[in-house]
Write a sequence for this structure.
């Protein structure tokens, strides 16, 4: 049977013809999937409100020759409602969706860990559990770690010498000891490195208690680290208020 079912986060939608949309999903089992949702722009469509960005849905797909077709969608997490009405949440969420799309390819490997990170991050964003900027930075750091680019914020990223170390170098993978320190290195505030380590490990007590300055410096480092690895800009990151 060319039918399959999967849980998915809606990453993006594009208009197609009069009433249809092409929807880009990050699925639990099949990685990124692009599919046509027919008739969703008609007011009578039952699919309409469900296949919108940020939504977590249980989708049934029909395997097509080029693009698959969405035949059914049931809402699991209506995160769009809690995200779209708040500018801070919306811009953070948009940057998360865009990053998830850039880290995956259509028809490639399943990306279960990334799917779980994204679904968890959007749920947290929609409920206002933590400040949006922190949820975004935690997602970006962990998504990079899942992609094989885990930064180090304590031990030396080159030789493993136990930290904390003062110097930080993006190209070396994070904190560096005096011996491994390249000529281009920065010296972030120790509280910033503590915050980054907390975001990467999911220590929300430390992250939520952090001050404005470490948050701002940490966001700059995360954005630079993301750009270094993706080798291109995540456009929507520029809209996030830091
Ligand atoms: Zn070292």
């Amino acid at each position: 049977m060319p039918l399959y079912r999967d849980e998915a986060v809606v990453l993006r939608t594009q208009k197609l013809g009069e009433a249809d949309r092409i929807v880009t999903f990050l699925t639990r089992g099949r990685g990124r999937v692009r599919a046509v949702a027919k008739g969703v722009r008609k007011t009578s469509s039952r699919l309409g409100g469900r296949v919108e960005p940020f939504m977590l849905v249980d989708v049934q797909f029909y395997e097509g020759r080029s693009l698959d077709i969405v035949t059914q969608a049931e809402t699991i997490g209506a995160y769009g409602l809690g995200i779209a009405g708040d500018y801070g949440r919306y811009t953070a969420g948009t940057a998360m969706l865009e990053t998830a799309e850039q880290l995956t390819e259509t028809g490639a490997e399943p990306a279960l860990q990334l799917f779980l990170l994204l679904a968890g991050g959007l749920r947290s964003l929609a409920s206002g559990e933590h400040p949006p900027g922190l949820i975004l930075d935690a997602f970006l750091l962990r998504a990079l770690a899942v992609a094989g680019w885990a930064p180090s914020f304590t031990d030396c990223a080159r030789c493993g010498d136990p930290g904390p170390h003062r110097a930080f170098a993006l190209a070396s993978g994070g904190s560096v000891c005096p011996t491994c320190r390249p000529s281009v290195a920065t010296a972030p505030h120790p509280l910033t490195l503590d915050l980054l380590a907390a975001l990467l490990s999911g220590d929300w007590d430390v992250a939520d208690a952090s001050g404005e300055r470490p948050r701002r410096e940490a966001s700059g480092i995360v954005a630079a680290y993301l750009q270094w690895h993706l080798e291109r800009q995540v456009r929507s990151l520029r809209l996030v208020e830091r």
Notes: Residues 212-230 form the longest helix (19 residues). Residues 145 and 151 are 7 Å apart (CA to CA).
